[in-house]
Amino acid sequence: MPTAIRILGLVKRYGDVVAVDGLDLEVRMGECFGLLGPNGAGKTTTVEVMEGLIESTAGTVEVLGRTWTTQREDLQARVGVALQETKLFEKLTVGETLRLFRSFYDDARALQVETLLTTMQLTEKRSTWVQKLSGGQRQRLAVALGLIGDPELLFLDEPTTGLDPQSRRALWDTIAGLKQRGKTVVLTTHYMDEAEQLCDRVGIVDHGKLIAQGTPSELIHESGGFHLVELQTEPPLPPDALADVNGVRSVRAQANGIALAIDEPHIALPALFVRLAERQARPTRLLSRAATLDDVFLALTGRNLREE
To answer: CATH number of the domain at 30-51+67-216, please?
Structure first.
């Protein structure tokens, strides 16, 4: 599959601080790629380099087969960006803002203002000043501005932050429609259901490095299993007391007991109850659920994804 973004050995330093440390990454054409990681992990810096907003200290970054240093104007016409927080002209209306940004692009290529107003559910706000918009409405406008040039590659930085559930689902549909049209989307998000729903592949960044990448299901399986059993017992048991139970892939301590990663609950759970009986331990809490990308990140880094 053709490559939309290729990064080799990316390094970004701010004085003595290394924000990105030799990161390698490839995003394929036509996919939605999610870049995940807590604040301070190097995720935002990596995205800003890909967007051409900042220059790298070292490494190679190719976007749509080009580089920002040599072919910036060409890339600006082919790439769309929706930042987490976009500063706009407060005394322009929504319609005026869209028409202004549309004027920056080739008229034959740019999307129609009316189309974007409808797509982003802003039709009733066309004559409203930007300063009068709610946070969610501002966010929808920012995404519309990222789409207005009909980009081949779209960067969405936390696009559904502040959106109500209906607007959030509408944006999901918009992203799905972009993929159907062959567009490439790079998405950052702290909502794991969003990443699992939208992303063909995800990459997890921590301490400036890409520590894992693959489809959500691949990462979940490789990190310890498709199911997670959270257990508390009386008396409490150490994790190693359950590590060799049949069907258990891994065990770790957590604040409220023990977490066991398993693939097949019908094998692991009966064996687990046998072991508890052998240890004369009574389960006071037992929860079995599907593993998530949050569990993947916790297993890989020891931190929750939303920790800062």
So the answer is: 3.40.50.300
